[in-house]
Amino acid sequence: MTETLHCEPIKLNLVGLDGNAYSLMGAFQRAARKQGRTPEEIKAVLDDCMSGNYDHLLQTLVLHTR
Fold first, then answer.
1. Domain count for the chain
2. d(CA 19, CA 51)
3. Fewest Cβ atoms nearer than 10 Å: which of 15, 18, 20, 26?
4. Do the domain assignments include residue 2?
């Protein structure tokens, strides 16, 4: 995983969301924007999500949410 610019996870419950990769990343992006993350911080996480397979995407989102 690449290093991201923030260390505080965003509040987002991934349980019950559509499991489509783009849907999950969109939910993360919307929640991160609402919680004041910068575009650079969001991009770093999303780039990390896309740097591997679906399992990597899920692990990355779990790491950056609470």
1. 1
2. 18
3. 15
4. no
Residues 37 and 10 sit within 8 Å (Cβ to Cβ):
yes
**Is residue 34 in a domain?**
yes
Q: Is residue 49 part of a domain?
A: yes
pLDDT tens sequence across 1-53: 555 566 799 999 999 999 999 999 999 999 999 999 999 999 999 999 999 99
Q: Where are the alpha helices (DSSP H) in 1-66?
A: 21-34, 39-49, 54-63
Using CA atoms of 30, 31, 34, 39 in order, give the dihedral in degrees to the nearest 10. -60
- With contact defined as beta carbons under 8 Å apart, do 25 and 33 qualify? no
Placement of tokens 């004041």 in the chain: 36
